[in-house]
Amino acid sequence: APRGAERFLEMVRGGFFSSRVALFRSVEGFLCQTGVAGDPHVHQRWRAKGAIADDAPWFDTADSRPMKRGYLSFAGSGPDSRGTEFFFAYRDLGLGQSPWEVPFGKLVGEDSFEAMDHWYTGYGDMRAFGGRAPEQRRIYEQGVAYLEPEFPELDYITSCDIV
Fold first, then answer.
1. What is the pTM of this model?
2. CA–CA separation, 99 vs 103, rounded Å?
């Protein structure tokens, strides 16, 4: 997924992850969504960049679970809708068949999987799906000022580097 990978690298180079990016939708055995900057001003700057175009699916279309454990994909809502939000797959999933859900990366090494398996999942899914995860709109508007007092158990990405 060259467009997805390039956007992610652009986010890393641009310091996006230095603003404490919450793992705000962490559903045990499903996925962990992240990618909203903890600083609302940083989030607005990135939203102003607009969405990126879809990437062509690259997997075997006969595979009913193309999103494998440890894969990363942007979280789009339809054609050409990917911005900065992305997710990690906790297990092999049926997601990834839409061009806005094409994996752009994957975790490597047992240490990475061990860390992922310890992310906090107690708030679960979005409220629309029966969970208690933070409201995305409020994260966009208030960032960590909203998250820290109301969701003290959340885990965060505090830095990301290219090695």
1. 0.93
2. 9
Rounded to whole angstroms, how far apart are CA atoms 54 and 59?
15
Residue 80: per-residue pLDDT: 95
* Cross-strand pairs, 26: 32, 124
Q: What is the pLDDT of residue 132?
A: 97
Tell me, what's the pLDDT at 61?
Answer: 61
* Per-residue model confidence as pLDDT tens digits over 6-53: 999 999 999 999 999 999 999 999 999 999 999 999 999 999 999 999
Its CATH architecture, for the domain 2-157, is: Beta Barrel (2.40)
Tell me whether strands 156-157 and 71-74 are parallel, antiparallel or unpaired. unpaired
Q: Which residues of the chain have pLDDT under 50?
A: none
What is the Cα–Cα distance from 61 to 26, expressed in whole angstroms? 27
Domain boundaries defined on the chain: 2-157
Residues 89-93: contacts with CB under 8 Å, at least 24 apart: 89/31, 90/27, 90/28, 90/29, 90/30, 90/31, 90/32, 90/116, 90/117, 91/29, 91/30, 92/65, 92/67, 92/68, 93/30, 93/31, 93/65, 93/67
